[in-house]
Q: What sequence folds into this?
């Protein structure tokens, strides 16, 4: 009886992990698109590309940061109790 509950919880954790990964991917894509739009506006208003490039990272850098964060999260993962807040 207890084993079934554990399986349900493990299944739910996998679903939530997949949701978080999907949302993270969407966030990275939105950030890239936002930078593209900001750069287009900057071009229209006369801001230099050098200023924009100094403050933004490439899509590859954003993906590398996301992957690094996921790896760190997996290495640092510990069991959490009720009331613990998990920030992804």
A:
């Amino acid at each position: 009886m207890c084993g079934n509950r554990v399986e349900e919880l493990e299944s739910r954790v996998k679903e939530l992990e997949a949701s978080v990964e999907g949302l993270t991917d969407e966030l990275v894509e939105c950030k890239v698109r936002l930078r593209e739009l900001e750069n287009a506006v900057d071009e229209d208003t006369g801001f230099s590309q050098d200023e924009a490039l100094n403050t933004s990272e490439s899509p590859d850098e954003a993906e590398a940061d996301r992957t690094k964060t996921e790896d760190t999260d997996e290495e640092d993962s510990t069991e959490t109790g009720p009331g613990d807040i998990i920030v992804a």
Remarks:
- The helical segments are 2-45, 49-55, 59-76.
- DSSP finds three helices and no strands in the chain.
- Residues 22-60 form one domain.
